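Batch job 17 of 40 flagged for manual review because the log was empty.
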Amino acid sequence: MNSRSLLAWVPTLYFFEGIPYFLVNVVSVTLFKRLGMDNASLAALTSLLYLPWVIKPLWSPLVDIYKTKRWWILTMQAALTLSFAVLALSLPHSVGRPVSAFVPSLIIFYIAAMLSATHDIAADGFYMLSLSEHHQSLFVGIRSTFYRISSVFGQGVIVVVAGLLETRYGNIPKAWSYTLLGSSFLLLLLSVWHFFVLPRKEDVMVHADGSAVEIEGLGENSAGKDVKNNVSDANLYKSAGKSFTDAFGSFFRKPGILLAMLFLLFFRLPEAFCVKMLTPFMLDPVSVGGLGLSTTQSGLVYGTVGVIALTIGGILGGIFAARVGLRKALWPMALSLALPCAVYLYMAIAQPSQIWVVYLCVAFDQFGYGFGFTAYLLYMIYFSEGEYKTSHYAICTAFMALSMMVPGFFAGWLQSALGYVGFFVMVMICCFATITLTTLLVPHIRPDYGKK
């Protein structure tokens, strides 16, 4: 595929991929906070929503071996569209209800999380099968940018809309129900777009004896014939079981696996603690250490300068990585990702009343994150090279989800115990994990990886 054809679907595919992920894992925090859930409960319960991304390698071979990845992408997109429409109808009708009142909404959130994690497996596999190594490096910036734009869209546009509806109706549950229905409609439009623009053929390989299909997927071969017709159902399911064990076994036999797992688990440790507490920090009153912003103001902070800074950072990160290669790019990107967390410590101490100061701090953080996160994505692609790269990438993303779930689970309790200043001091100490792992990893990366 040439760059023009890739631009038709790579940006929108990863924009779609991010919307349900951030609705489930980030916007849910704002939603439950506005509905009256306490910080400790909302951090713990929403952190568990990461679990499907942690365990998704358990069913990733099924995605690889059954149907095409295009089929999985479109099916999951339709199911996600429906799930958020149902979620809109499940919210409690009043604010300040006990945690038990949120159970129906949490169940639907967990279903949406399972669907979204499955969509991620298919979308990431489709990306790696469709792009050359150089195009993967070149487009990883665009991919990560649109993925992060969907994050800003969730934290920005969706939250702003909810805030405006809160003001208009004076009814928080009603405002969020309408917002979720609008999100569902957006997913519907993107699903229809992808039905028409996603390529219909996928590269597949069959073992020489014809008895097993490789993990890379089933679809049409270069002759346009359905490969599944050439393989018996018995051999197909036998292949699925073999692929499952082979994919897992070969991943954990990769050279440098221990260092890779540590990198995947702790490279983003500062962000992992931050992410669950940033929304409460923005919304909590000044008297308890927060910034005292409204729902609309909180959304605007991320939806204006945040999205601009993130877009520039992500695109520049992809260009930089494609020019110098991952090995040379990793150090500046690691520092760019970790150190901007200091802006939240500053805001916790100063509690600035001028909104432009908050905008400037968030812009600095988002630019650094957009630039630095590119290295993390590119390293996962790099470590997934070889046979079973789709499933290996899914395992990498499972470690990524685990790295966010466990710290996030405890973030609310830590913030309650330490206060916001103490909490963000702890976050800055966690930056040493990012720096140490980068120092250890750089010598093990192939010098020419990612360069044209």
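Reviewer: the log was empty due to a logging misconfiguration, but the result itself is present. The chain has one domain: 3-444. Unflagging and moving on to job 18.
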